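Hi V.,

You were right to ask for the full record rather than a summary. Here it is.
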Amino acid sequence: MIRITAAGVVRDGCMEEFRKLAERLVVASRAEAGNLSYGLYVSVSAPNEVAFLEEWKDEAAVEAHNATPHFTEICPALGEWLAAPMQVTTYKQVF
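Predicted structure:
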């Protein structure tokens, strides 16, 4: 299993626009065959800090996801609402 975290900070006053666009990405990603879990989370202590938490069956599923139109179109558009690029970390399950 592969787990990905993509964390960032939404610019002040832009959360509503970010969430609307992110919802489209989440819904489409959850429908993918190799997806196990995909959600957008907001920090309980810093309301502008967000993170996508994703779980995928394997690396092939991640590669397929990264090539989908919803990923290639929505992710760059989400960047317009961020204070800086998201920090993405990929983890491979050990046990």
